[in-house]
């Protein structure tokens, strides 16, 4: 074998052995809740009134989850497991606002047990989580263009909004 080729093969073997692949696949999330006003009429049954926006800081991909403004920390954990963990695994860290859901003892204990680093944004400084704030603005613009006059179908537009956002250049 040619000495040059053997050096290349040895280098290639060394590089693949020295890489820590687990760090390449860690999922970093930013969590934030965005409340959307919904038209309520007496005839309407209980309808979603909030959107949980989950953004991956690395890939910039977002998940838009319709929910209720009255959810508990336990509900949030179940939503997180159903919509985020089931598809992407556990995040390494979560940035969130200081809403009661994210500072509750249940959510704190859950993050400690799962070894997820929690970073709470500073009060009245939304730029701490600016990426999620920007996604919220884009989502609002999208919904403003497509939601019906009565604003009662916004939750049906979340999947196409998520698709459009995730397939746009960031």
Automatic annotation (TrEMBL):
Keyword Flavoprotein among record annotations: no
Cleavable signal peptide: none
Lineage: Eukaryota, Fungi, Dikarya, Basidiomycota, Pucciniomycotina
Protein name as it appears in the record: Integrase catalytic domain-containing protein
Keywords: RNA-binding
GO biological process: DNA integration
Short name of one Pfam family: rve
GO molecular function terms attached to this record: RNA binding
InterPro entries, sorted: Integrase_cat-core (IPR001584), Retrovirus_Pol_polyprotein (IPR050951), RNaseH-like_sf (IPR012337), RNaseH_sf (IPR036397)
């Amino acid at each position: 074998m040619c000495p040059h080729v053997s050096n290349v093969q040895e280098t290639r073997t060394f590089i693949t052995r020295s890489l820590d692949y687990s760090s390449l696949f860690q999922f970093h999330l930013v969590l934030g809740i965005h409340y959307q006003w919904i038209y309520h009429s007496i005839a309407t049954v209980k309808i979603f009134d909030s959107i949980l926006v989950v953004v991956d800081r690395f890939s910039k991909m977002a998940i838009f989850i319709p929910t209720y403004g009255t959810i508990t920390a336990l509900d949030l954990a179940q939503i997180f497991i159903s919509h985020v963990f089931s598809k992407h695994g556990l995040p390494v860290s979560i940035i969130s606002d200081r809403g009661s859901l994210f500072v509750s003892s249940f959510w704190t204990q859950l993050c400690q047990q799962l070894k997820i680093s929690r970073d709470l944004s500073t009060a009245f400084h939304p730029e701490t989580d600016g990426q999620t704030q920007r996604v919220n603005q884009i989502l609002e613009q999208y919904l403003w263009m497509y939601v019906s006059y009565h604003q009662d179908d916004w939750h049906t537009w979340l999947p196409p909004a998520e698709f459009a956002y995730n397939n746009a250049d960031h």
